[in-house]
Amino acid sequence: MMSKSFKDEIDPLMKQIENIAKANKIPFFASFMLSDESDNEEITPENVKYKNYMFSPHLAGISLPKNDYIAEYIKITNGFVAQPVRMRVDETDIEKD
User: Fold this and answer.
1) How many domains does the chain divide into?
2) What average pLDDT does the chain have?
């Protein structure tokens, strides 16, 4: 259940943004953390809920061979855990005393 303030104020704005983005082929991803209860309910781990909006590069007709961060955001919303990029360290890069 969406809070009344979210449903009445933010959701209509996001629908406008989504329409403008689609008309102009501008990919985006937006995520809101909400309480699963009323407007006055504090957000806790037990009642947290997310509302996501997206217009993907693929739907915009944009081909990104890498650096498609929107795809990475979607993976996280589906339960994947983000991990930092690991840099390879060669022993010639290590300073010796």
Assistant:
1) 1
2) 82
